[in-house]
Structure formats: structure tokens, C-alpha cells
Amino acid sequence: MTRPSRALLAVLACMICIAADPSRANTLRIYESSVGQGQVRLIPGPVTNALIDLDYAPASAEGGKLYGVSEVEIEATGNLVLSPTGFACQAISCLYTPQPFVAGKRIRVTAGNDLAGETVAAANFLRIGVTGSTGHIVLVRGEYLDGTGAAGSVGATRTLDAAPLVTVPELEGAAGLAAGCGLLALASLRKRLRAFAHPLARGATRA
Own/partner pairs for 195-204, CB < 8 Å, 24+ apart? Predict the structure, then answer.
């Protein structure tokens, strides 16, 4: 029986970090298209402008509908950098920052204002290049508008769950794991603070 690679252990460790977070409750999924929902893509490093293709699943939102996403932040950890090679903001009515997109550690995307509600199982979200030798591409934060209103109409504003999307091995020892999981822990803390401060999350206002 072969021993698991450090790359696999890194992914498992980060998934454990997420699973241990009791605040994970929302259902909309963003994922790397080549591996599918709930999976993390492994790309052997080092890489230069390796293309990653992120999709989302509107039907996975509460109520089976999605009316838009806002401030979705994708971040590169370790020495990975997001690059504009092959870049395309693919979601409908897509806005992004920085604009124009240049190589850096993060991108923020807002997409959709579909008053009819999206119900498809899978849709294109973002295509972007990645350069570096080790680290993760992580979904850090974001909000979405679900379809839990009357008869599937506009419902509640919800917070996206932080999640790793892509990992580039090999991470060297515990420091690399701590960096990746630490980012996810920070994202969870940000989410809790926003939930406390955001009037929509407290139910004071409904979309």
C-alpha cells in the first residue's frame, strides 16, 4: 500500500479545518470544473500560467434558485499568484476587481441580477491563470441571494462557505498546512463578524 503524498495530506487537512467549522451551513457551491462539486483539484507544481476554470451550481442554493452573487473573493496562498493569462469573467453580468485584472494574490467578483432566478445545475463563473510552486487557491468570502421566498421567489442573503478549490503540491511541512488552514479560519471569523453586523443576516431586512 502506497503512502499518501504530502499534497493529499495538505488537502485533507484543509478539508478537516472546514468541516470543523460549525458555521458551515449554506449550500451554494463554487468549484473547479475539472473535478466537480465538493472536490479539490491537485495540479503538480511548479506551474506557469496553469489555467483553472471555476464553475458554480445555481441549483445548489437554498430553494433551488440563485438570484446573484456578490463580493466573491478568490485568493492565492503560499507563493501562488493569480495571473491574467486566459482570464475570463464568465458569469452573466460579471463585475470584478481589480479591473483590468493584473497578476496578484486575489480577485473579487460580483455577478448576476437575474430576477427570474437561475436554476441550472452548473454555470461558468471564472477562468484564470495560476503561477507558482506551492499553495492553495481558496474561496475566501462572498454572499448570494437564494430562492427561499414565496413560490421560489427572491429569498434570503446568505454567506458563502470558505473552501479550498485548487492545491499545488508540495507543501513543505506544517508551515504550509498552517498557512492554508489559517486563511480558512480567518475567513470563518470574518464571516461570523459580518453575520453579526450585517442587517440582512440578522433578518432586519429581506431582499
Answer: 195/23, 195/159, 198/157, 200/156, 200/157, 201/157, 201/159
